[in-house]
């Protein structure tokens, strides 16, 4: 796998509203695989913007083209869980295996810790081995399998629940 940090034209920057068309297209590619999300269609910008944290939203851009994106969603409105967020990370299918996901994940972890987030979690379909591997390399551990947690096109699906506890936030 190539190291995205060594790609001279690779930039990771904040995701802004003007990126939505490209972000949505990448999200739709993930949806079409059947192994990235339970979602069946991408939401509007307004829906997506409202459902994700206002911080920790990034894109990977190469030669003025968005190659991937990552963002966090709050797991609960209860204040005790204010430092726990769920990871969404997507890379254009044609760009997978080039280190873009790894670069996005590393930046997302650093940003989340700067925002005081102490636990990141992810629910990943067991068939999505690339995503599981990416999360493991970033220090996530498997907590277990949530059996038949949801239905996708009438079929019950499992997810692997993974989490990463910050080594710097929430250690007191």
Count all strands and give the number: 7
Strand order across the largest sheet: 1-2-3-4-5-7-6
Would you identify the regions where 5 or more consecutive residues have pLDDT less than 50?
Answer: none
**N-to-C order of helices and strands:** EHHEEEHEHEE
Overall radius of gyration: 15 Å
What is the rounded distance between the termini?
A: 37 Å
Main traits of this protein?
alpha+beta; single chain; globular; 7-stranded mixed β-sheet; 172 residues
Could you explain the architecture of this structure?
With 172 residues, this protein is of the alpha+beta class. Helix content is 26%, strand content 33%. It is built from 4 helices and 7 strands; from the N terminus they run βααβββαβαββ. It has helices at residues 20-33, 45-51, 100-114, 129-137; strands at 10-14, 58-62, 65-74, 84-91, 119-124, 141-152, 155-165. Strands 1-2-3-4-5-7-6 form a 7-stranded mixed β-sheet.
In short:
The protein has helices at residues 20-33, 45-51, 100-114, 129-137, and strands at 10-14, 58-62, 65-74, 84-91, 119-124, 141-152, 155-165.
Q: Topology, please?
A:
Blueprint: E1 10-14, H1 20-33, H2 45-51, E2 58-62, E3 65-74, E4 84-91, H3 100-114, E5 119-124, H4 129-137, E6 141-152, E7 155-165
Parallel strand pairs: 4-5
Antiparallel strand pairs: 1-2, 2-3, 3-4, 5-7, 6-7
